[in-house]
Write a structure and sequence with these properties.
The protein is built from 12 helices and 10 strands. With about 375 residues, it is α/β, with parallel strands linked by helices. The strands form 2 sheets. Strands 2-1-5-10-9-6-7-8 form an 8-stranded parallel beta sheet, sandwiched between helices. Strands 3-4 form a two-stranded antiparallel sheet. Helix 10 links the parallel strand 9 and strand 10. Bound molecules: zinc ion. Zinc ion binds next to loops.
């Protein structure tokens, strides 16, 4: 049930034994050694609602938590209530004029961009979502190896502008918060949402302390239009931005194959101190906003591998659940992500969908390998 190997348990216990110096402590700890996992939740998460006729409806965090509870998964996690990110936190990443702009919109209601209405009070709710990711990130420094924010992963928010239903880039704000507080030097983002994380890329394109890896549907066929295979970072940060765009119609089997060829070798070579996993499930075949054809089991296998890579390297995995706009399919897909993290075998399965264009997928992977050839052995 728990992915802790006996050698690690032994070392941990020995340390405890010698520092505490009595057998009772040794035994007590020995029994309680399990991987500690955290999840953050606040009932106001459900106020992140962009309207009933908008794809982003507010009840997703609540429905996710209910389903996890029903499936006896939630009991594997300790639940924490986050606080709102402060304005000083937001300013670690965003321009002051942008933060002011969102605040003003939030007072009157309005539009942040053509696809992103700004309902009244959104400043507070988006600050709470950001605070959720920061709180979950902090738990990884309090003995938790996995921490989840069901309302995280707003990767379209750039320093001074945003769209794509995002207000503040909680991924980057959490990175900057942890960098300052815990003096980290190597952050890895694994962004598997169907949309390219253009905001995060804008923020970190020149920063080689953040390895920003994004798998997404090809920008020539989907919002936000960026994330081409040749975008690999600038100057001495070249190789630290990794983009794998998939053609519409790509299925789970090809996607998993691509993941195995690219993600584990780069992670092992980069040796991250923390992995931030934007685990958006708008890649599912039933999602109304995009055209990839991943199936429920794909999410189980992806999450299982990300969790194993974290175990092998940083032992700090921050999971931000990200996009997903088919209200039934997204909850089931998120559940499978939890199954993957826990190594829980009763994950949901459905029939695989073959690729529309398997050759193009193979060619894109080969192209990416060529672009990255000077930086990583793949
Ligand atoms: Zn998305």
């Amino acid at each position: 049930m728990f992915d802790v190997n006996t050698e690690q348990i032994y070392v941990f216990n020995c340390e405890y034994f010698y520092t505490e110096g009595n057998l009772f402590t040794y035994r007590a700890i020995s029994l309680s050694v399990t991987m500690k996992r955290a999840i953050v939740y606040h009932e106001d998460f459900n106020k992140y609602d962009l309207g009933t006729d908008h794809p982003l409806i507010g009840d997703k965090p609540k429905n996710t938590m209910s389903f996890l509870k029903e499936k006896s998964v939630l009991s594997e996690f300790q639940i924490f209530t986050p606080k709102k990110a402060t304005e000083a936190d937001l300013l670690k990443v965003h321009d002051p004029s942008y933060v002011e702009h969102v605040k003003k919109l939030s007072q009157t209601g309005g539009w942040l961009s053509e696809d992103t209405p700004a309902p009244k009070g959104i400043f507070e709710v988006a600050s709470l979502a950001t605070g959720g990711s920061m709180c979950a990130g902090e738990k990884l420094f309090e003995g938790y190896e996995v921490a989840v924010n069901p309302l995280g992963g707003f990767h379209h928010a750039s320093k001074g502008h945003s769209s794509g239903f995002c207000f503040f880039n909680d991924i980057a704000i959490t990175i900057e918060y942890l960098r300052q507080k815990h003096k980290l030097k190597r952050f890895m983002i694994i962004d598997l949402d169907v949309h390219h994380g253009n905001g995060t890329q804008d923020i970190y394109i020149d920063d080689k302390t953040v390895l920003n890896l994004s798998f997404h549907q090809d920008g020539r066929t989907l919002y936000p239009g960026t994330g081409s295979v040749e975008t690999i970072g600038r100057e001495d940060a070249a190789g630290y931005t990794v983009n794998l765009p998939f053609p519409p119609g790509t299925g789970g089997i090809s996607y998993l194959k691509a993941f195995k060829e690219i993600v584990p070798p780069i992670t092992r070579q980069f040796k991250p101190e923390i992995i931030l996993y934007q685990s958006g499930v708008d890649t599912h075949h039933a999602d109304p906003l995009a055209d990839l054809n991943l199936t429920y089991q794909t999410y189980y296998h992806l999450a299982k591998q990300v969790a194993a890579l974290s175990e092998e390297t940083s032992k700090k995995l921050l999971v931000l659940l990200g996009g997903g706009y088919n209200s039934t399919a997204c909850i089931k897909s998120y559940y499978n992500i939890f199954c993957g993290i826990l190594g829980k075998q009763d994950y949901l399965e459905e029939e695989e969908i073959p690729d529309t264009d398997p050759e193009e997928v193979k060619n894109t992977i080969q192209q990416l390998k060529q672009y990255l050839n000077d930086y990583w052995s793949l």
